[in-house]
Amino acid sequence: MILPRGRLAHLGRSHKAFKPAFYYDHYETHLAVDPNEVTGLLELGVRDGGSLLMWRDVFPAAQIFGVDLNPASVADETARVHQIQANQTDGDTIGAYLRARGVNELDVIIDDCSHIGSVTKQSFWYLYNTFLKPGGYYVIEDWGTGYWESWIDGAERVEPDPATEAAGIFLSHGHGIPGFVKQLIDCTKIYQSLVVTEAFVIIKKQSPENRAAVDRHVKQWQDHGTV
Question: Which domains does the chain have, with CATH numbers?
Answer without folding.
Answer: 7-224 (3.40.50.150)
